[in-house]
Amino acid sequence: MSTPLHLHEDRLFPADPAVRQIARRLYAEVRDLPILSPHGHTDPQWFAGNAPFGNATELLLAPDHYLFRMLYSQGVDLNELGVPSRRGPSNANPREAWRKFAANFYLFNGTPSWLWLNYVFAKVFDLKVRLEPSTADHYFDVIGEKLATDAFRPRALFERFNIEVLATTESPVDTLDHHHKIQSSGWKGRVITAYRPDAVIDPEHEQFKDALQRFAEITGEDVYSWKGYLSAHRKRRADFAKAGATSTDHGHPTAATADLSPVEAQRLFEKVTSGKFTPTDAELFRAAMLVEMAKMSEEDGLVMQIHPGAFRNHNRWLFETFGRDKGADIPEKTEYVQALRPLLDRFGNSKTLSIILFTLDETVYSRELAPLAGHYPALKLGPSWWFHDSPEGMLRFREYTTETAGFYNTVGFNDDTRAFLSIPARHDLARRIDCVYLSRLVAEHRIDEDAAAQVARDLAYRLPKQAYKL
Amino acid sequence: MSTPLHLHEDRLFPADPAVRQIARRLYAEVRDLPILSPHGHTDPQWFAGNAPFGNATELLLAPDHYLFRMLYSQGVDLNELGVPSRRGPSNANPREAWRKFAANFYLFNGTPSWLWLNYVFAKVFDLKVRLEPSTADHYFDVIGEKLATDAFRPRALFERFNIEVLATTESPVDTLDHHHKIQSSGWKGRVITAYRPDAVIDPEHEQFKDALQRFAEITGEDVYSWKGYLSAHRKRRADFAKAGATSTDHGHPTAATADLSPVEAQRLFEKVTSGKFTPTDAELFRAAMLVEMAKMSEEDGLVMQIHPGAFRNHNRWLFETFGRDKGADIPEKTEYVQALRPLLDRFGNSKTLSIILFTLDETVYSRELAPLAGHYPALKLGPSWWFHDSPEGMLRFREYTTETAGFYNTVGFNDDTRAFLSIPARHDLARRIDCVYLSRLVAEHRIDEDAAAQVARDLAYRLPKQAYKL
Amino acid sequence: MSTPLHLHEDRLFPADPAVRQIARRLYAEVRDLPILSPHGHTDPQWFAGNAPFGNATELLLAPDHYLFRMLYSQGVDLNELGVPSRRGPSNANPREAWRKFAANFYLFNGTPSWLWLNYVFAKVFDLKVRLEPSTADHYFDVIGEKLATDAFRPRALFERFNIEVLATTESPVDTLDHHHKIQSSGWKGRVITAYRPDAVIDPEHEQFKDALQRFAEITGEDVYSWKGYLSAHRKRRADFAKAGATSTDHGHPTAATADLSPVEAQRLFEKVTSGKFTPTDAELFRAAMLVEMAKMSEEDGLVMQIHPGAFRNHNRWLFETFGRDKGADIPEKTEYVQALRPLLDRFGNSKTLSIILFTLDETVYSRELAPLAGHYPALKLGPSWWFHDSPEGMLRFREYTTETAGFYNTVGFNDDTRAFLSIPARHDLARRIDCVYLSRLVAEHRIDEDAAAQVARDLAYRLPKQAYKL
User: Fold this and answer.
1) Which structural domains are found in chain C, ordered by start?
2) Contact list, A311 vs chain B (CB under 8 Å)
3) Do C367 and B332 touch (CB under 8 A)?
4) Which residue of B has its CA nearest to A74?
5) Is C35 in contact with C162 (CB distance < 8 Å)?
6) Which of A400, B60, B390, C469 is in Cβ range 3.0-4.6 Å of A366 for a Cys bridge?
7) Is residue B90 very low, low, confident or very high in pLDDT (cuts 50, 70, 90)?
8) C-beta contacts of C110-113 below 8 A and 24+ residues apart
9) Residue B327: is its pLDDT beyond 70?
10) For testing the chain A interface, which of C9, C65, C73, C400 should be mutated: the one with the most A CBs within 10 Å?
11) Burial of residue B320 (number of CB atoms within 10 Å: 0-12, 13-18, 19+)
12) Mean pLDDT across chain C, nearest whole number?
């Protein structure tokens, strides 16, 4: 009763035969380039320990909020899918959870998860039939068997995937032990970290108090004084840089920045660390810290990434029961023109500082971000992000930004994923879609084909390498 | 001097021959499915009385704000088009009004009204020539003659249109007499009502005071006490459910919701019914009533529809002279992520309550609505609405929502129309456009064709049936 | 080492062969129509003096912020490109600046500047090879030689470009000497002015104080009294009308309008001219002046253009160093529904006053502007503007506005440019894109081809002529 699974060679390419031919030629230029993954959320422990992954549910379903949120939206309990809660691991049987997933796989029709997963199934696991209720057990068995082999251990997959660099993201209170272990292991895979200080910068973060405490311990600084707090950041940034980091990352609710005087900054710092602060104080502190981080980046050369605009943990009950990152983060309107001005007044004309902007609010592509990046030397545009990391999302990103900012104020693709096995699928999709956009321009005589091929290669390899100083 | 009128079989399908073939095959799956019309504004009196319609102007032009607003925007007076004012019926000669319309029909080039009307002309009235000045009288005569025949009475058309269910929309102070008459008539057509309580919920509605008075009379409740007011709602919801209603509908200026304590709610109720309230009070009361309505829906099972975002009666002079619904309602920015949180905190994780969201602000499709509906079990997305009930509008809806929410968090099509004769045209257009979107996905190997056919059938029939509990 | 430069006859047309055929046929209808340029920023001195233009850098690069801002965003100094600063002219060697530009011309891949420039290179200068580092000197030489010939003087180019009317834009404190000289010269070219009073209306404009002073001198009115100030406007509007003006233009930060009583207006005027005013006062004064301008337009018949939404001079250091119009104006969110209501309450139903709306915020096309223009007789929609004056931008404009407002509430194309030589390129691009949009409608049977041809002709010629009373 099963149906063949087949990845079409021309998938995602335009239907028109002439345009498809152009897309094929462009794609041939980039298909086999190494993968640069300068921003993501894989676990460095995988590459440090190189232990085999578990089963299909543990590896592919339970940690992937793109997947379980869709089933949740249709009335499936997270516990049934193997998702751990605050009380501990799920008690679901992994095979049963996988069957549940297979029974609901049709929900992903038309979504990028369908494309990514089928790539993983076909290319990584060499599965020949579609995932559907009748093949759920076959999938579970085949995936489990393969994961137990050496060829499917993290380092082997890393090499098979032709990854040149993979960046993970760590908190300032992370010991970076996994990264040190990778570095000293003799393994040639380049896995680097990135400095993501939200937990010690955002006074409204639920871990703020604890994180500050650990920040003090790990740095030996008096992080409750403004001066010590800044020194602690400097120390840890240096540690991160030693562990390979070339960038920082900032996931604030808004893009607000503020350039405070040292006295103002110190007073505000005392307020937010006293625990007696308003939401406005918290917002101002995050804003001020973006400028502080920029100052440090001018010194130490780390590229700044700003990822604003998510209302985290929107579902109160789910957050209380299951915790963070459970598919309940919802984008909000995000303003950049006023918000970034204090930062840009100070660093916008810098040729050494590089700030990469992301958004979850597509309305700002043509209205705010492309005009800003098409003018300020310090600004570049990150790729379409999260909900917009998809064929339509990527096409819109190019359609809305290219005419004002061009291709060369963008930085190629970020997979931004925890789903290690999907990395080749995601980069392949991104390369294909850039070729789709370019093929249309070529067919409409809006760019020369040799220039389009150069752009395709630059987007796939040169621009991320340069923008992230890899 | 007339030109042939011809509905092309492939209208709205993509031009590329291979994609068009796919669209044709998908459309063949849904073309003949019965029509489910779960939300609209036809007049139940038509089906209760089954009297013949009047002439072309009275039936097609004077009541249709899509049409007369376009002519008005180009300097034609509403009175000339047969549109009644607050002072009474228009004194325009219906044939003259129709000629005026014919002379300006070119204004509709590129609009959905052009598509809908040509369908009505060709398929319903079997007209063979285009509407233009030289054929205006021919149209007026043919349409008038046909409307006088039994085959063009409301019930005959209802049957000819293959409508399985048609929902109208009534106010809580409506006696539902027409619906009772239909139910007891022995006619098999299923015409149901929907509970639209804006006039008794919105303190700023111009009918609020009168409506409350009638609300008291029709329910026998003390609607000036908070308890009696809620009881009156419960009673009328039960009456509506008996008259077939499966849903409620809420047309507020914003999507604001508020979960007040009983004491707060009662105080606020006293304020807004006293007549001494601020716009902020009115907004809060509407917000609180959405949560009250949700509570009742959890009990009685009526599906909630929320249609926010219209600035009603924007043209002051026109409103004073001609009244409501004269093409002068203008959309505004509409926020959902913060606005719906009180409602979702209480009911977002419910598997029994179903809330269908609509918007006039397309920027929220990918930013807010798809992420919300792609997570919360209680939420579904209504189709692209009103100004966006159009080929480009529908394509954008799919392009902006599918990758995050999939197809199965949407509910198929609503025609939402007063223009009874256009119902088949509108459903045909919606089915075609869904097939257009799917055909592109198939051609680009982003979905399998058998899955696409299943999605097309589900969107046309199964999903509205299920979402509206029909 | 050079590559041929070739403008493909089908550039910008859809790739699908059948649709391309339709686009070709539609374009043949409009290709050779005269150019109407009812809004732009060319320098009337060119046509008054008819002196030859200088070199490639002075004519094409240094004055064009579309070009130098892109190079600036990639780290090139403005001074190197021949851009003058507040301290005086650039000391860059023009040939060196041009080489710099040629070396970076790849940055414009995918942008409208690439399309416009290649048109200018190929069609105006008859260049046969692409601009690249190896051809930079060839370009500089050829362009310089041609510019020195009589055939490349401003009036000769004006005639060669088949321009029927060209509007420039002047401040109320401009003497209009160049226009008078053109008028009395016997030359038949029609170059008209437009009334752009921002400098005497916006209390926050850096020239406000000086401009008021000159406004007094040039009109002989007591412009520091409310009555005299209004009289000065009336006088100058009459002067402008005599110099051919048919329109006014208003470039405010927002679309706010306010209908104040004479007493309120006078008080506010006294406040803003005293120099002691808040940003709120300034905003209200600009808002009130839009209504005052509308009153005068009802009297003198000048069409009003409103161009809101740019945050001017966003880059503080650049503004202080280089001044205005240096590519650092960034769009912001812009609201129209509430903002325009005072103006529309007063004039929205007028059949004599005509107000043309523009936006830099594409989100308002379908949400606000199309519904407003599709209803109010006084409103029309200007074309996609500035950052959105591009193939994708124009297609989006049609896709987002046509279904609600139709084609006939729009006014054809404005080139809005200082770059005189690019005018034919820009109109050609606009005509092609309108044909692209129409060809898709024809191919999908959403419009009849003869109607589409009529629409194409109307957009290219009849509608701008009528809307701007040319």
Assistant:
1) 17-51+153-467 (3.20.20.140), 54-151 (1.10.2020.10)
2) 337-338
3) yes
4) B377
5) yes
6) A400
7) very high
8) C110/A402, C110/A403, C110/A406, C110/A407, C110/A441, C110/A446, C110/A447, C110/A455, C111/A402, C111/A403, C111/A404, C111/A406, C111/C70, C111/C390, C112/A403, C112/C389, C112/C390, C112/C391, C112/C429, C113/C64, C113/C66, C113/C67, C113/C70
9) yes
10) C73
11) exposed
12) 97
Backbone torsions φ then ψ of C4, nearest 5 degrees: -65, 145
- Are B110 and C376 within 8 A, CB to CB? no
**Which residues of A fall within a CB distance of 8 Å from B445?**
7-8, 10-12
How many other CB atoms are found less than 10 A from the CB of residue B418? 17
Q: What angle do CA A30, A36, A42 make, to 5 degrees?
A: 135
Contacts of residue C351 in chain B, CB cutoff 8 Å?
75
Single out the residue of C223, C236, C266 nearest to residue C170, CA to CA: C236
pLDDT at residue C247 greater than cutoff 90: yes
Host H or E run for residue A248: strand A247-250
- Closest residue in C to A361 (Cα) is C363
Minimal Cβ distance to C106: which of A14, A375, A451: A451
For A263-405, strand residue ranges (E) read: 303-306, 310-311, 330-331, 355-357, 379-381
Which parts of chain A sit beneath pLDDT 70?
Answer: 1
CA dist B393 and B413 (Å) reads 13
Measure B345 CA to nearest chain A CA, in Å. 6
Q: Least CA distance to B130: which residue of chain C?
A: C448
Q: Kindly report the number of other CB atoms within 10 A of residue A437's CB atom.
A: 26
**Binary contact (B455, A110; C-beta < 8 A):** yes
Which residue of A114, A315, A388 is in closest CB contact with B348?
A315
Write out the E strands in A280-372: 303-306, 310-311, 330-331, 355-357
pLDDT per residue as tens digits for the range C27-74: 999 999 999 999 999 999 999 999 999 999 999 999 999 999 999 999
Distance in Å, alpha carbon of C257 to nearest chain B alpha carbon: 15
**Tokens 């625990």, residue?**
A275
- A301-333 burial: b if 16+ Cβ within 10 Å, else e: ebbbbbbbbbbbbbbeebbeebeeebbbbbbbb
Answer yes or no: do A367 and C390 touch at CB < 8 A.
Answer: no
Phi then psi for A339, rounded to 5 degrees?
Answer: -60, -40
- CA contacts within 13 A on the Cβ side of A49: 7
- Closest partner CB to C402 (pick from B13, B111, B329): B111
Name which of B3, B314, B388 is nearest C366 (Cβ-Cβ): B388
Q: Let me know the angle formed at the C-alpha of C325 by C323 and C331, rounded to the nearest 5 degrees.
A: 120
CA of C70, closest CA in chain A: separation in Å?
6
Distance CA C60, CA C56 (A): 5
Q: Is the pLDDT of residue C197 over 80?
A: yes
DSSP string, B30-93: HTTSPEEE-S----HHHHHH-PPP--HIIIIITT-HHHHHHHHHTT--TGGGT--BTTBS--S-
DSSP letter string over C20-53? HHHHHHHHHHHTTSPEEE-S----HHHHHH-PPP
Nearest to B367 among A114, A316, A331 (CB): A331
Rounded to the nearest 5°, which phi and psi values hold at B310? -100, 130
Burial of B312 (0-12, 13-18, 19+ CB in 10 A): middle
Residue B371 — left, alpha, or beta (φ > 0 → left; ψ -120 to 50 → alpha)? alpha
Per-residue model confidence (pLDDT) at position B64: 96
Between strands C310-311 and C330-331, the pairing is: antiparallel
Do A5 and A129 form a contact (C-beta atoms < 8 A)? yes
